[in-house]
């Protein structure tokens, strides 16, 4: 027998033996973790067990806040093919209040086995192998577990962990470091703005956030490019650009086909939208953050709106005014206006306030453990 043939047969035999030895409840998956955007987790650790034996885990020595349900990387341990776990242990330090949380829970193993066998359905309706079991860690000690495959994600369960007290509360050096870090950190400044505007919605991580069947359109009289990032109450985020959701100005209300891709699936409502609007040659940039009306969910629930349209009429010297509508086949309801400032390259600044607030906006009461001196918020508010 030729040597190459012998090598091939030997390799083939090893593969066949490996497949035959794989248990029917053993799958290729890894452990992951997640935390809400602007409500991060420091030093996250997760470990999965089956019948009291550790089978997989993940940890990180730094803080994470990739967005709720979005998986963050870190050190991952465990074999490639693993049995489905029956329990979990987690611990982390909350990035908002520095409380240390630790605990665990039983997992619905039969449900997870069935999901591994039937596979995940991604954003485009295709089936993908589940490859991750993700632990989301949120303020208040709230944990959510998901199974994920490609862009498909299925919630498995929720549970609460025990508050172990303030991390290094009496450590003088550590407290000094935290104070100095907050003074110079742009990331902390951005998060503290978010807290000032939206507070800490503890209950949303405990109960979950409702999703709605609506799509998103963007329209402008001048066909500038655009990019939108939508932030939801629970710290999730999703993005939209001109490739999938642009509506010609004169047809923004008249023509009404549903967007065909992932933007038309069910999604949470935004509480804040970051927008960039820029000319085709990228010589002029307008930026800003739009704070959505606090009664948006009530408006959606009381009507049959199934599209949100963000519109900007035309370019001006230093700023532009835009509008947001809720739309259906028969009517459109303008819910707010917003302002964007042009970015001045020579001055390295926006020529208008970064934040736009709707009429009647009320800043929430701060519920965090520590009294924070929030930085001054420069904003434009609709009259």
From TrEMBL:
One Pfam family it belongs to: DUF2931
Name of this protein: DUF2931 family protein
Organism whose genome encodes this protein: Flavobacterium humidisoli
């Amino acid at each position: 027998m030729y040597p190459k043939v012998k090598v091939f047969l030997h390799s083939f035999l090893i593969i066949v033996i490996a497949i035959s030895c794989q248990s029917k409840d053993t799958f290729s998956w890894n452990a992951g973790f997640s935390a809400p955007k602007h409500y991060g987790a420091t030093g996250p650790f997760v470990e999965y067990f089956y019948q009291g034996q550790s089978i997989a885990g993940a940890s990180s020595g730094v803080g994470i806040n990739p967005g709720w349900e979005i998986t963050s990387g870190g050190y991952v341990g465990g074999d490639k093919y693993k049995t489905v776990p029956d329990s979990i242990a987690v611990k982390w330090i909350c990035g908002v209040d520095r409380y240390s949380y630790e605990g665990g829970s039983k997992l619905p193993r039969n449900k997870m086995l069935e999901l591994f066998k039937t596979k995940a359905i991604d954003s485009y309706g295709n089936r993908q192998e589940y490859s991750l079991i993700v632990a989301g860690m949120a303020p208040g000690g709230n944990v959510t577990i998901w199974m994920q495959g490609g862009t498909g994600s299925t919630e498995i369960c929720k549970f609460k962990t025990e508050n172990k007290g303030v991390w290094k509360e009496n450590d003088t050096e550590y407290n000094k470091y935290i104070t100095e870090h907050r003074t110079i950190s742009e990331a902390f400044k951005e998060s503290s703005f978010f807290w000032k505007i939206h507070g800490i919605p503890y209950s949303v991580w405990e109960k979950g956030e409702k999703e709605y069947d609506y799509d998103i359109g963007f329209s402008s009289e001048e066909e500038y490019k655009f990019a939108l990032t939508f932030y939801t109450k629970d710290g999730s985020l999703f993005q939209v650009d001109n490739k999938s959701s642009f509506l010609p100005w004169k047809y923004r209300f008249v023509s009404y086909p549903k967007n065909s891709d992932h933007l038309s699936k069910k999604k949470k409502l935004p509480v804040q939208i970051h927008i960039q609007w820029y000319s085709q040659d990228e010589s002029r940039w307008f930026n800003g953050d739009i704070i959505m009306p606090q009664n948006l969910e009530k408006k959606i629930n009381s009507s049959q709106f199934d599209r949100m349209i963000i519109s900007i009429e035309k370019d001006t010297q230093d700023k532009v005014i835009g509008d947001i509508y809720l739309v259906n086949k028969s009517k459109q309801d303008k819910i707010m206006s917003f302002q964007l400032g042009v970015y001045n390259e020579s001055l390295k600044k926006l020529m208008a306030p970064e934040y736009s607030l709707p009429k009647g906006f009320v800043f929430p009461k701060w519920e965090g453990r520590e009294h924070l001196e929030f930085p001054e918020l420069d904003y434009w508010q609709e009259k």
